[in-house]
Amino acid sequence: MLPVIALVGRPNVGKSTLFNRLTRSRDALVHDMPGVTRDRKYGDGKLGEKPFIVIDTGGITGGEEGIDHEMARQSLQAIEEADVVLFLVDGRAGLNPSDEMIADHLRRSNKEAHLIVNKTDGVDPDVAMADFHTLGLGEPIAIAAAHNRGVRLLVEYVLGGYPEPEETEEQDTGVRIAIVGRPNVGKSTLVNRLLGEERVVVFDEAGTTRDSIYIPYERDGKPYTIIDTAGVRRRKNVKEAVEKFSIIKTLQAIKDSNVAVLVIDARQGVTEQDLHMLSFVMDAGRALVIAFNKWDGMSADEKEDVKAQVQRRLEFAAFARFHFISALHGSGVGDLYRSVNEAYDCAMAKWATNRLTTLLEDVVADHQPPQVAGRRIKLRYAHQGGSNPPVIVVHGNQTDQLPQSYRRYLQNRFIKVLKIRGTPVRFEFKTGDNPFAGKKNTLTPRQQAKKERMQKHVKTLKKEKAKKKLKRK
C-alpha cells in the first residue's frame, strides 16, 4: 500500500500550494483568500522511485458553523485516512489559538504528525519556528512551499521509514463521469449518492464546490472516476477571481471526461444557462446523460410542464437519455449507470471500414445525392476517424457541395443502423484530389498531327453544312 499524507491546518497557510508542489501539478486551486479548498482532494506524488498519495483539505479553525463545519468534517476524515499528517502553520502570522486546537486533536489521534512551518521565505527560520515549539509535536520543519524551498527534504524525512513499494500495474481509471450544471442544482448530493458516502461537502448555498474533485471507485467490479465540479453561472454574475478559476476547472473537467451528466433543477425548468452548458458539452464531443433533479415533491401538473419543456427545448439533444431523479432520496439514481455505460460504449465503439462502406452504399442506394452543375455527387467509401466522440469520414467527389439536409439524412441513418445512443456523432467529408489538376497536357508530334487533321475535318463539315442551307433557300 502507498503511504497517504494528509495536509491539515488553518485556512490560508499554504496547504494547496504544498499539494501542487508534492504532486507536481496545478490541480488544486490556489488563491490569496481563506476557504478556497472545501473538499478532500487526492493527488499522486513521487519522490525518486517512491510514490505516495497526498490529501489536500480545507482549513480548520475550531469555531466552524454552517459550511465551515462541513469543511472541517472533511479535514478530520482525511486525518483518519492518513498514515502521516503534515500540520501546516503560518511562520509569518505566528502561533494562533486554532493551531493549538489542531495540535491537541493530533496528539489525541495517535497519528504520525509533523509540524511544518510554512512561509519562511524572507524571514529567519529560527525566529519563525520559535513560537511553535510549545505545540508539543516535536521539532518544527521550516519550508517555503511557494518557492519550493525545503519541500524535497521534507518528503525525504517523512517517507524515510517507509519501504520501497512493489511495482504495480497502472490503475485503470475506468469511465470518467463529470457531474456538471448550474450552482445549487444538487451535483454534490448526486455525487455522494452515487458513491454511497458523504465524500464531498453538501450545503444549501450556491457555490459550495469550488474545485473539480476526481474520485476513483468501483461498482459491480467495474472502475469509474466521478468528477464533482463547480457550478457555472452566467458570465455577468461572476465577480470573484476564484469563481473564474472554478469555471475554468469545470470546463477542463468536461473535456477530460468520457461522459458528462448534466444536472438540471426540475423545479426551475430548463434555463438558458442549462442550454449553454449543454452546448459546451456537445461542442466538446462528450457523451451525455441529462438528469432532472429534485423531482420529488413536484405536482403532476409541474411534472407534465417540465416534460413539455424537454420536448420543446431539448429536441436537438434527443440522442441523450433523460432521467428524472431525486439525489436527496436516491430515487432513479441507480438507473443513471445504465445510461452512462451505454453512452460510453457507443462513444468508444469501433466499426470496420467494410461495414461502414457497405452501410454507405445502402444509404446512397435508397436516396441518391443531388446533382451539382449537371454532375452527380458520388460518395465512394467510409471509415472511422476517431472515438469519443465517434468520427466517421466519408470520401467522394464534390463533397463540399453536399447540402446540409443530405448530411443530416446520412447522419440519422448511420445512427439508427449502428444503434448509437448517448453520444454525438461527427461526420467529415473529404473530396479526392484530381491527379491532373494544374497539369498541362503536352502532345506528341503524332498526337498534334491527328489534332490538326480533326480540326481541318470539322471545318470542312461546317462549310458543307452551310452550303446545303444556302441551296435550300
From TrEMBL:
<keyword id="KW-0677">Repeat</keyword>
<protein>
    <recommendedName>
        <fullName>GTPase Der</fullName>
    </recommendedName>
</protein>
<dbReference type="InterPro" id="IPR005225">
    <property type="entry name" value="Small_GTP-bd"/>
</dbReference>
<dbReference type="InterPro" id="IPR006073">
    <property type="entry name" value="GTP-bd"/>
</dbReference>
<comment type="subunit">
    <text>Associates with the 50S ribosomal subunit.</text>
</comment>
<comment type="similarity">
    <text>Belongs to the TRAFAC class TrmE-Era-EngA-EngB-Septin-like GTPase superfamily. EngA (Der) GTPase family.</text>
</comment>
<feature type="binding site">
    <location>
        <begin position="228"/>
        <end position="232"/>
    </location>
    <ligand>
        <name>GTP 2</name>
    </ligand>
</feature>
<feature type="binding site">
    <location>
        <begin position="293"/>
        <end position="296"/>
    </location>
    <ligand>
        <name>GTP 2</name>
    </ligand>
</feature>
<dbReference type="InterPro" id="IPR015946">
    <property type="entry name" value="KH_dom-like_a/b"/>
</dbReference>
<feature type="compositionally biased region" description="Basic residues">
    <location>
        <begin position="453"/>
        <end position="473"/>
    </location>
</feature>
<dbReference type="InterPro" id="IPR003593">
    <property type="entry name" value="AAA+_ATPase"/>
</dbReference>
<keyword id="KW-0690">Ribosome biogenesis</keyword>
<dbReference type="InterPro" id="IPR027417">
    <property type="entry name" value="P-loop_NTPase"/>
</dbReference>
<dbReference type="InterPro" id="IPR016484">
    <property type="entry name" value="GTPase_Der"/>
</dbReference>
<feature type="binding site">
    <location>
        <begin position="181"/>
        <end position="188"/>
    </location>
    <ligand>
        <name>GTP 2</name>
    </ligand>
</feature>
<dbReference type="GO" id="GO:0043022">
    <property type="term" value="F:ribosome binding"/>
</dbReference>
<feature type="domain" description="EngA-type G">
    <location>
        <begin position="175"/>
        <end position="348"/>
    </location>
</feature>
<keyword id="KW-0342">GTP-binding</keyword>
<keyword id="KW-0547">Nucleotide-binding</keyword>
<dbReference type="InterPro" id="IPR032859">
    <property type="entry name" value="KH_dom-like"/>
</dbReference>
<feature type="binding site">
    <location>
        <begin position="118"/>
        <end position="121"/>
    </location>
    <ligand>
        <name>GTP 1</name>
    </ligand>
</feature>
<dbReference type="GO" id="GO:0042254">
    <property type="term" value="P:ribosome biogenesis"/>
</dbReference>
<feature type="binding site">
    <location>
        <begin position="9"/>
        <end position="16"/>
    </location>
    <ligand>
        <name>GTP 1</name>
    </ligand>
</feature>
<dbReference type="InterPro" id="IPR031166">
    <property type="entry name" value="G_ENGA"/>
</dbReference>
<dbReference type="Pfam" id="PF14714">
    <property type="entry name" value="KH_dom-like"/>
</dbReference>
<dbReference type="Pfam" id="PF01926">
    <property type="entry name" value="MMR_HSR1"/>
</dbReference>
<dbReference type="GO" id="GO:0005525">
    <property type="term" value="F:GTP binding"/>
</dbReference>
<feature type="domain" description="EngA-type G">
    <location>
        <begin position="3"/>
        <end position="166"/>
    </location>
</feature>
<feature type="binding site">
    <location>
        <begin position="56"/>
        <end position="60"/>
    </location>
    <ligand>
        <name>GTP 1</name>
    </ligand>
</feature>
<comment type="function">
    <text>GTPase that plays an essential role in the late steps of ribosome biogenesis.</text>
</comment>
<feature type="region of interest" description="Disordered">
    <location>
        <begin position="433"/>
        <end position="473"/>
    </location>
</feature>
